Amino acid sequence: MVEISTSLLSVERENAIKNIYNLETAHTDYFHIDVMDGKFVEKNTKDIMLEYATTIKQISNIPIDVHLMVENVKENIDDYISLEPNIITFQVEACKDIEEVFETIDYIKQNNIKVGIAIKPNTDIGEILGYLPYIHTILVMTVEPGLGGQKLIPETISKVKEIKEYVDNIGIEIDIEVDGGINAENANELKEKGANILVIGNYIINSEDYIKTIKELKI
Where residue 49 sits, what CATH number does that domain have? Predict the structure, then answer.
């Protein structure tokens, strides 16, 4: 069964605690924290996402899934270390070279946090295959990072299949997470291609029944 990481990007501050409670009751597997700095992507969510993550840590036992879409990766990792998230994922495009990617992987692991690497829709998967044995999750962005509510880019689905075939061939266990424009219509195809964690925001947050929506997405 696929796991659901619910993005809080579209949650209004005044509804945050209620939404967090309702999502926990609906058995979301993770809370997805979309950290943006206004530089790597246009939108800036640093303050509100740190606020949401802190609230989750105080009132919920659901694991926190942090996705950094920022230029200064290390600085933003430091913001979340004390909250002990389940995983911190960073965009490979934010690093200037291979050495920096491995330094970032090691830094996250040294803090006893799982590590993930994310790739934009236009990033060739050949650029990240060498990192897969050293990380816990590969996050395939199926929309351009930075905005919620976008439609899934169909061409990105093939990346999920290619990554799944690659990791199976070399015999490593890694989560394949997919983020962007996911709904009931395309979730099954992503699962069939090999995704085992779906990041979903608007489709869940705007639904009338979180329990029913998440249950249907997991099946």
Answer: 3.20.20.70
3-class DSSP assignment, residue 138: strand
Do 172 and 132 touch, CB atoms closer than 8 A?
Answer: yes
pLDDT, tens digit, for every residue of 103-142? 999 999 999 999 999 999 999 999 999 999 999 999 999 9
How many structural domains does the chain have? 1
From 106, 175, 179, 209, active-site residue: 179
Q: Which residues contact 209 (CB under 8 A, 6 or more apart)?
A: none
What is the span of the domain harbouring residue 184? 3-218
pTM across the whole model? 0.96
Catalytic residue among 29, 34, 37, 65: 34
Measured CA to CA, the distance from residue 3 to residue 37 in angstroms comes to: 27
